[in-house]
Amino acid sequence: MKTPEEEDLRQVREYLAVGSNRSAATTISAEQVKLWMESPSLDVQGVIFDFVMDPERAARIEPPLAFGDYRYFVLRYLSRCMIENPQSGWAATRFDASCELLRWCGIIWSDPSVEKDATEEAKDLLRRLCLDYGSEVRRVAIQGILEHLFENPSVRAFFADWRGDPELRDAYDEANEWQRLGGRTPVAPKGTRNP
Question: Are residues 81 and 168 in the same domain?
Answer without folding.
Answer: yes
